[in-house]
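Hey, I'm writing a tutorial for new members on how sequence and structure tokens pair up, and I'd like a real worked example in the thread rather than a made-up one. If someone can provide the structure for the chain below, I'll link this post from the tutorial.
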Amino acid sequence: MPVSLHHIVVDARDLPAQARFWAEALGWRILSEREREVVIGPDATAPVGICFMPVTDRKVVKNRLHLDLTSGADDREAEIARLLALGARRVDVGQTGDESWTVLADPEGNEFCVVRPKTTLVS
């Protein structure tokens, strides 16, 4: 039997703040909050959540792994504006400007993308 994905773990300097940002961004909730671990997810029975673990150092290089977010809404720019209002910021990781995604970073600098809905990928 293969293993299954349980959590995506994100290093964070301010666990509660990062958890609040991502819970709000994804429409999830905080499931568990301890001194050295905060877990968010859509609900307690969800197959995958995000776990924030403490680090003392600042992020200094581009992520080797990032999240791609999408919305069922047709107005991707409105979703980007919502994320920016939550504390995200636009970042340049070498985009040309012709991409079908927008690169943002969370309050601690972790890059993520807002991409077009998967339904647009069907030919």
